[in-house]
Protein backbone atom coordinates (compact mmCIF):
# COMPACT_ATOMS: atom_id res chain seq x y z
CA UNK A 1 0.00 0.00 0.00
CA UNK A 2 2.94 2.30 0.77
CA UNK A 3 6.49 2.10 -0.51
CA UNK A 4 9.10 4.60 0.63
CA UNK A 5 12.67 4.49 -0.68
CA UNK A 6 15.55 6.77 0.26
CA UNK A 7 13.26 9.61 1.32
CA UNK A 8 14.90 12.90 2.36
CA UNK A 9 13.43 16.30 3.11
CA UNK A 10 15.07 19.61 3.91
CA UNK A 11 13.14 22.74 4.89
CA UNK A 12 16.18 24.91 4.30
CA UNK A 13 17.17 23.41 0.94
CA UNK A 14 20.65 22.67 2.19
CA UNK A 15 22.12 19.53 3.68
CA UNK A 16 20.23 19.94 6.97
CA UNK A 17 17.57 17.27 6.69
CA UNK A 18 14.36 16.96 8.72
CA UNK A 19 14.18 13.35 7.50
CA UNK A 20 17.08 11.33 6.17
CA UNK A 21 17.09 8.23 4.00
CA UNK A 22 13.77 6.75 5.17
CA UNK A 23 12.96 3.31 3.82
CA UNK A 24 9.84 1.29 4.64
CA UNK A 25 6.91 -0.56 3.12
CA UNK A 26 3.39 -0.97 4.47
CA UNK A 27 1.32 -3.94 3.35
CA UNK A 28 -2.39 -3.80 2.60
CA UNK A 29 -4.45 -4.23 5.76
CA UNK A 30 -1.60 -3.37 8.09
CA UNK A 31 -1.65 -0.83 10.94
CA UNK A 32 1.78 0.76 10.86
CA UNK A 33 2.78 3.01 13.75
CA UNK A 34 5.25 5.85 13.31
CA UNK A 35 6.61 6.51 16.78
CA UNK A 36 8.94 9.27 17.80
CA UNK A 37 9.42 12.30 20.04
CA UNK A 38 8.53 15.85 19.06
CA UNK A 39 10.57 17.07 16.11
CA UNK A 40 11.54 13.55 15.01
CA UNK A 41 10.14 13.99 11.50
CA UNK A 42 6.76 12.25 11.77
CA UNK A 43 4.64 15.08 10.36
CA UNK A 44 7.18 15.81 7.64
CA UNK A 45 6.99 12.19 6.47
CA UNK A 46 3.22 12.05 6.71
CA UNK A 47 2.82 15.33 4.84
CA UNK A 48 4.95 14.03 1.97
CA UNK A 49 2.98 10.79 1.81
CA UNK A 50 -0.33 12.66 1.44
CA UNK A 51 1.00 15.26 -0.97
CA UNK A 52 0.89 18.28 1.38
CA UNK A 53 4.67 18.66 1.12
CA UNK A 54 6.37 18.32 -2.22
CA UNK A 55 8.61 15.32 -2.69
CA UNK A 56 12.22 16.51 -2.93
CA UNK A 57 14.31 13.37 -2.91
CA UNK A 58 13.45 9.69 -2.88
CA UNK A 59 10.64 7.47 -4.16
CA UNK A 60 7.19 7.27 -2.64
CA UNK A 61 4.21 5.20 -3.72
CA UNK A 62 0.86 5.47 -1.93
CA UNK A 63 -2.14 3.28 -2.81
CA UNK A 64 -0.52 2.52 -6.15
CA UNK A 65 0.20 6.19 -7.00
CA UNK A 66 3.63 7.68 -7.50
CA UNK A 67 3.76 10.77 -5.27
CA UNK A 68 6.08 12.52 -7.72
CA UNK A 69 3.13 12.91 -10.11
CA UNK A 70 0.08 13.01 -7.86
CA UNK A 71 -3.23 12.36 -9.54
CA UNK A 72 -6.37 13.81 -7.99
CA UNK A 73 -8.01 10.39 -8.02
CA UNK A 74 -5.54 9.33 -5.31
CA UNK A 75 -7.48 11.51 -2.85
CA UNK A 76 -10.57 9.35 -3.39
CA UNK A 77 -8.63 6.46 -1.89
CA UNK A 78 -6.99 8.11 1.10
CA UNK A 79 -8.28 9.67 4.31
CA UNK A 80 -6.38 11.94 6.68
CA UNK A 81 -7.05 13.09 10.20
CA UNK A 82 -4.40 15.57 11.26
CA UNK A 83 -3.96 17.78 14.30
CA UNK A 84 -4.39 21.00 12.33
CA UNK A 85 -7.93 20.15 11.41
CA UNK A 86 -8.87 22.98 8.98
CA UNK A 87 -12.56 22.73 9.70
CA UNK A 88 -14.81 25.51 8.44
CA UNK A 89 -15.58 27.32 11.68
CA UNK A 90 -18.69 29.12 10.41
CA UNK A 91 -20.27 25.90 9.17
CA UNK A 92 -22.02 23.46 11.48
CA UNK A 93 -20.52 20.01 12.00
CA UNK A 94 -23.08 18.56 9.59
CA UNK A 95 -22.36 21.23 6.96
CA UNK A 96 -18.62 20.60 7.28
CA UNK A 97 -19.05 16.91 6.52
CA UNK A 98 -21.68 17.49 3.82
CA UNK A 99 -19.43 20.00 2.06
CA UNK A 100 -16.37 17.75 2.33
CA UNK A 101 -18.10 14.66 0.95
CA UNK A 102 -18.91 16.56 -2.26
CA UNK A 103 -15.19 16.86 -3.03
CA UNK A 104 -14.99 13.14 -3.80
CA UNK A 105 -15.89 11.22 -6.94
CA UNK A 106 -16.61 8.06 -4.99
CA UNK A 107 -19.50 6.94 -2.85
CA UNK A 108 -19.37 8.68 0.53
CA UNK A 109 -20.92 7.94 3.90
CA UNK A 110 -23.89 9.70 5.43
CA UNK A 111 -22.66 12.68 7.55
CA UNK A 112 -25.26 11.91 10.23
CA UNK A 113 -23.93 8.35 10.57
CA UNK A 114 -20.41 9.71 10.95
CA UNK A 115 -21.51 12.24 13.58
CA UNK A 116 -23.22 9.47 15.53
CA UNK A 117 -20.21 7.18 15.21
CA UNK A 118 -17.92 9.65 17.00
CA UNK A 119 -20.46 10.53 19.70
CA UNK A 120 -21.39 14.01 18.45
CA UNK A 121 -25.07 13.24 17.97
CA UNK A 122 -27.25 16.20 19.01
CA UNK A 123 -24.38 18.60 18.34
CA UNK A 124 -24.44 18.37 14.55
CA UNK A 125 -26.00 21.81 14.11
CA UNK A 126 -23.47 23.66 16.26
CA UNK A 127 -20.88 25.67 14.32
CA UNK A 128 -17.49 23.94 14.26
CA UNK A 129 -15.91 27.16 15.55
CA UNK A 130 -17.86 26.71 18.77
CA UNK A 131 -16.66 23.14 19.24
CA UNK A 132 -14.11 22.26 21.95
CA UNK A 133 -10.67 20.99 20.89
CA UNK A 134 -11.68 17.38 21.54
CA UNK A 135 -14.93 17.76 19.59
CA UNK A 136 -13.05 19.27 16.63
CA UNK A 137 -10.65 16.36 16.81
CA UNK A 138 -13.54 13.89 16.65
CA UNK A 139 -15.19 15.76 13.78
CA UNK A 140 -11.93 15.74 11.82
CA UNK A 141 -11.57 12.04 12.52
CA UNK A 142 -15.14 11.42 11.25
CA UNK A 143 -14.49 13.57 8.18
CA UNK A 144 -11.38 11.56 7.32
CA UNK A 145 -13.45 8.38 6.87
CA UNK A 146 -16.30 9.87 4.83
CA UNK A 147 -14.91 8.62 1.48
CA UNK A 148 -14.32 5.06 2.76
CA UNK A 149 -10.54 5.38 2.39
CA UNK A 150 -8.41 2.34 1.61
CA UNK A 151 -5.39 4.10 3.07
CA UNK A 152 -6.06 6.02 6.26
CA UNK A 153 -3.57 8.47 7.80
CA UNK A 154 -4.15 9.19 11.47
CA UNK A 155 -2.13 11.72 13.42
CA UNK A 156 -2.44 11.31 17.20
CA UNK A 157 -6.02 10.00 16.90
CA UNK A 158 -6.74 9.86 20.64
CA UNK A 159 -4.73 12.82 21.94
CA UNK A 160 -6.70 15.11 24.23
CA UNK A 161 -9.74 12.84 24.37
CA UNK A 162 -11.22 11.48 27.58
CA UNK A 163 -10.73 7.73 28.18
CA UNK A 164 -14.25 6.71 27.13
CA UNK A 165 -14.12 8.59 23.82
CA UNK A 166 -10.55 7.47 23.26
CA UNK A 167 -11.62 3.85 23.63
CA UNK A 168 -14.49 4.46 21.17
CA UNK A 169 -12.04 5.90 18.62
CA UNK A 170 -9.72 2.90 19.05
CA UNK A 171 -12.66 0.55 18.42
CA UNK A 172 -13.55 2.42 15.24
CA UNK A 173 -9.94 2.13 14.05
CA UNK A 174 -9.90 -1.62 14.78
CA UNK A 175 -13.22 -2.15 12.96
CA UNK A 176 -12.09 -0.23 9.88
CA UNK A 177 -8.87 -2.23 9.85
CA UNK A 178 -10.85 -5.49 10.06
CA UNK A 179 -12.59 -4.37 6.86
CA UNK A 180 -9.15 -4.23 5.19
CA UNK A 181 -8.29 -0.54 5.59
CA UNK A 182 -4.54 0.09 5.79
CA UNK A 183 -3.54 2.58 8.48
CA UNK A 184 -0.53 4.84 8.95
CA UNK A 185 -0.67 5.99 12.54
CA UNK A 186 1.57 8.75 13.82
CA UNK A 187 1.93 9.07 17.55
CA UNK A 188 4.10 9.52 20.59
CA UNK A 189 1.63 7.51 22.64
CA UNK A 190 3.20 4.08 23.05
CA UNK A 191 0.04 2.58 24.58
CA UNK A 192 -2.08 3.22 21.52
CA UNK A 193 0.79 2.04 19.29
CA UNK A 194 1.14 -1.13 21.31
CA UNK A 195 -2.57 -1.82 21.30
CA UNK A 196 -3.27 -1.10 17.65
CA UNK A 197 -0.16 -1.55 15.53
CA UNK A 198 0.97 -4.64 13.64
CA UNK A 199 4.38 -3.02 13.23
CA UNK A 200 6.00 0.13 14.52
CA UNK A 201 8.86 2.27 13.25
CA UNK A 202 10.94 4.20 15.78
CA UNK A 203 11.99 7.54 14.34
CA UNK A 204 14.45 9.93 16.00
CA UNK A 205 16.20 12.96 14.50
CA UNK A 206 14.78 12.22 11.06
CA UNK A 207 16.04 8.64 10.92
CA UNK A 208 14.25 5.33 11.35
CA UNK A 209 16.12 3.38 14.00
CA UNK A 210 14.07 0.19 13.93
CA UNK A 211 10.95 -1.41 12.43
CA UNK A 212 9.30 -4.45 14.00
CA UNK A 213 6.10 -5.76 15.58
CA UNK A 214 5.46 -4.77 19.21
CA UNK A 215 5.32 -8.47 20.08
CA UNK A 216 8.70 -9.27 18.54
CA UNK A 217 10.22 -6.22 20.24
CA UNK A 218 8.93 -7.29 23.63
CA UNK A 219 10.29 -10.79 23.13
CA UNK A 220 13.63 -9.40 22.10
CA UNK A 221 13.98 -6.72 24.74
CA UNK A 222 11.77 -8.01 27.56
CA UNK A 223 13.36 -9.70 30.53
CA UNK A 224 12.66 -13.40 30.74
CA UNK A 225 11.30 -13.23 34.28
CA UNK A 226 8.19 -14.30 36.15
CA UNK A 227 7.25 -12.15 39.12
CA UNK A 228 5.35 -13.90 41.88
CA UNK A 229 3.65 -12.78 45.08
CA UNK A 230 2.81 -15.60 47.50
CA UNK A 231 2.03 -16.28 51.15
CA UNK A 232 4.61 -18.21 53.14
CA UNK A 233 3.75 -18.86 56.80
CA UNK A 234 1.27 -15.97 56.67
CA UNK A 235 3.85 -13.55 55.30
CA UNK A 236 3.55 -11.96 51.81
CA UNK A 237 6.68 -12.70 49.77
CA UNK A 238 7.55 -11.01 46.45
CA UNK A 239 10.06 -12.80 44.27
CA UNK A 240 11.09 -13.13 40.65
CA UNK A 241 12.43 -16.15 38.79
CA UNK A 242 14.24 -16.49 35.51
CA UNK A 243 12.40 -18.55 32.89
CA UNK A 244 15.72 -19.42 31.26
CA UNK A 245 17.78 -21.19 33.94
CA UNK A 246 16.76 -24.65 35.17
CA UNK A 247 17.42 -24.07 38.90
CA UNK A 248 15.24 -20.93 38.82
CA UNK A 249 12.47 -22.73 36.96
CA UNK A 250 12.58 -25.53 39.54
CA UNK A 251 12.33 -22.98 42.36
CA UNK A 252 9.30 -21.39 40.70
CA UNK A 253 7.60 -24.80 40.39
CA UNK A 254 8.40 -25.45 44.03
CA UNK A 255 6.79 -22.15 45.11
CA UNK A 256 3.69 -22.91 43.01
CA UNK A 257 3.37 -26.38 44.55
CA UNK A 258 3.94 -25.32 48.14
CA UNK A 259 2.41 -21.90 48.67
CA UNK A 260 -0.70 -19.88 48.04
CA UNK A 261 -0.04 -17.67 45.02
CA UNK A 262 -1.47 -14.14 45.11
CA UNK A 263 -0.22 -12.80 41.76
CA UNK A 264 2.03 -14.12 39.02
CA UNK A 265 3.02 -12.45 35.76
CA UNK A 266 5.82 -12.25 33.22
CA UNK A 267 7.87 -9.08 33.20
CA UNK A 268 7.29 -7.57 29.78
CA UNK A 269 9.16 -4.51 28.60
CA UNK A 270 6.86 -1.67 27.55
CA UNK A 271 7.28 -0.12 24.11
CA UNK A 272 8.47 3.05 25.80
CA UNK A 273 11.23 1.19 27.67
CA UNK A 274 12.25 -0.47 24.41
CA UNK A 275 12.21 2.87 22.60
CA UNK A 276 14.54 4.35 25.22
CA UNK A 277 16.82 1.29 25.09
CA UNK A 278 17.07 1.38 21.29
CA UNK A 279 17.27 5.12 20.68
CA UNK A 280 18.64 6.47 23.94
CA UNK A 281 15.74 8.97 23.89
CA UNK A 282 12.31 9.29 25.50
CA UNK A 283 9.13 9.56 23.50
CA UNK A 284 8.24 13.09 24.62
N1 LIG B 1 7.69 24.26 8.18
C1 LIG B 1 8.88 24.01 8.71
N2 LIG B 1 9.93 24.83 8.48
C2 LIG B 1 11.15 24.57 9.00
N3 LIG B 1 11.43 23.50 9.77
C3 LIG B 1 10.42 22.65 10.03
C4 LIG B 1 9.10 22.87 9.53
N4 LIG B 1 8.31 21.85 9.96
C5 LIG B 1 9.10 21.05 10.70
N5 LIG B 1 10.35 21.52 10.75
C6 LIG B 1 11.51 20.90 11.45
O1 LIG B 1 11.67 19.59 10.94
C7 LIG B 1 11.97 18.67 11.98
C8 LIG B 1 10.92 17.57 12.00
O2 LIG B 1 9.69 18.15 12.39
P1 LIG B 1 8.30 17.37 12.33
O3 LIG B 1 7.21 18.37 12.54
O4 LIG B 1 8.24 16.54 11.11
O5 LIG B 1 8.42 16.43 13.63
P2 LIG B 1 7.31 15.59 14.39
O6 LIG B 1 7.95 14.29 14.72
O7 LIG B 1 6.06 15.55 13.59
O8 LIG B 1 7.07 16.43 15.72
P3 LIG B 1 5.69 16.62 16.58
O9 LIG B 1 5.43 15.32 17.25
O10 LIG B 1 6.04 17.70 17.56
O11 LIG B 1 4.60 17.01 15.63
C9 LIG B 1 12.05 19.48 13.26
O12 LIG B 1 13.39 19.82 13.50
C10 LIG B 1 11.24 20.72 12.93
O13 LIG B 1 11.70 21.83 13.66
From TrEMBL:
<keyword id="KW-0547">Nucleotide-binding</keyword>
<dbReference type="InterPro" id="IPR050763">
    <property type="entry name" value="ABC_transporter_ATP-binding"/>
</dbReference>
<dbReference type="GO" id="GO:0016887">
    <property type="term" value="F:ATP hydrolysis activity"/>
</dbReference>
<dbReference type="Pfam" id="PF00005">
    <property type="entry name" value="ABC_tran"/>
</dbReference>
<dbReference type="InterPro" id="IPR027417">
    <property type="entry name" value="P-loop_NTPase"/>
</dbReference>
<dbReference type="InterPro" id="IPR003593">
    <property type="entry name" value="AAA+_ATPase"/>
</dbReference>
<keyword id="KW-0067">ATP-binding</keyword>
<protein>
    <submittedName>
        <fullName>ABC transporter ATP-binding protein</fullName>
    </submittedName>
</protein>
<feature type="domain" description="ABC transporter">
    <location>
        <begin position="2"/>
        <end position="230"/>
    </location>
</feature>
<dbReference type="InterPro" id="IPR003439">
    <property type="entry name" value="ABC_transporter-like_ATP-bd"/>
</dbReference>
<keyword id="KW-0813">Transport</keyword>
<dbReference type="GO" id="GO:0005524">
    <property type="term" value="F:ATP binding"/>
</dbReference>
